[in-house]
Amino acid sequence: MTHVLLEKKDHVAIATINRPKALNALNSEVLADLNELVDTVNADSEIYALVLTGSGEKAFVAGADIGEMSTLTKAEGEAFGKKGNDVFRKIETMPIPTIAAVNGFALGGGCELSMACDIRLCADTAVFGQPETGLGITPGFGGTQRLARLIGPGMAKQLIYSAKNIKADEALRVGLVNAVYPAEELMAAAEKLAATIAKNAPIAVRACKKAINEGLEVGMDEAVVIEEKLFGSCFETADQKEGMGAFLEKRKHEPYQNK
Ligand code: CAA
To answer: pLDDT tens across 47-106, in order?
Structure first.
């Protein structure tokens, strides 16, 4: 991968989008690298959580690459949207939890990428927005869908129609991010949360993610059945036996084994 750096700390992977000269803008090469990142992380059974951030101090991701998009035909535009959507959907459906550590501009495709992650933490310097209508296009990597689901249609429509950016405190207020940190503390906070998640039983954590994501896509009657099946799937695992056994024996559980 040329434009994505991958580091591992215990059971946590930290991926950094690394195209700082273009504020980490997403061109086809970066999208291909993100696709490869997901394959690499999914293939590693020792990774229990992923933190995704941007290189440099200025941007998480400043959007899809405007230079690359500027000359596209209608058909090519649709294909470029599909390319981004496919990768982002792949990120969203990764079995392990993902945390976007938004370290600066998260505009257009950058805001959309953060929304494909399970959790968004940001620096106090972060700026979010969907500036696409100001460029003559719609958000194209899931923004019209995920923003409305995340913060509600009223506020999503205001942000998208107006193309106005919002700062970190406003992003927190509307529920786009879970927490804001001083810029220099963001990565430590994201890694700490990822490590906390990674300490819990990985099979159970993955089942929670699947239950929440898949349950939100169906009606409640179907959703509770999804939960029941995933709840059941945790039983008879070594980690379930250890977790409950430790509680009953009034001791701390041994580190979970992902079994
Ligand atoms: N695409 C391509 N290049 C980009 C880029 C983008 N989205 N964002 C920044 N860059 C490049 C700039 O062209 C510039 O390159 P050069 O040095 O070669 O000129 C470099 O990154 C640094 O950017 P600026 O000089 O503009 O930095 P700044 O601090 O003055 O401004 C900014 C920062 C406000 C983020 C500004 O760069 C900006 O507005 N960027 C575009 C943001 C945007 O509109 N994003 C949405 C794209 S559309 C989209 O994402 C569609 C979709 O949903 C799929």
So the answer is: 999 999 999 999 999 999 999 999 999 999 999 999 999 999 999 999 999 999 999 999
CATH superfamily of 201-248: Lyase 2-enoyl-coa Hydratase, Chain  A, domain 2 (1.10.12.10)
What is the arrangement of strands in the sheet containing 179-181, beginning at the earlier edge strand? 4-9, 12-17, 49-54, 98-102, 119-123, 179-181
Q: Enumerate the domain spans of the chain.
A: 4-198, 201-248
Domain 4-198 class in CATH: alpha beta
The closest residue, in CA terms, to atom 40 on ligand 1 is 62
**Closest Cα to atom 35 of ligand 1:** 62
Pocket lining: 6 vs ligand 1, CB cutoff 6 Å: no
